[in-house]
Amino acid sequence: MLRLAAFFLVTSCVSVGAAAATTGNDCAAVAVLRIEDANLLSASMVPASIVYHGWADPIVTPWRTLQYVEDVQRRMGGAEKTDSFLRLLILPGFDHCGMQTGPGANDAGFDPLPALEAWVERGVAPDSIPSARIGADGAVQWSRPACPYPESAGCGP
Question: Which residue, of 50, 125, 143, 145, is most buried by count of CB atoms within 10 Å of its CB?
Answer without folding.
Answer: 50
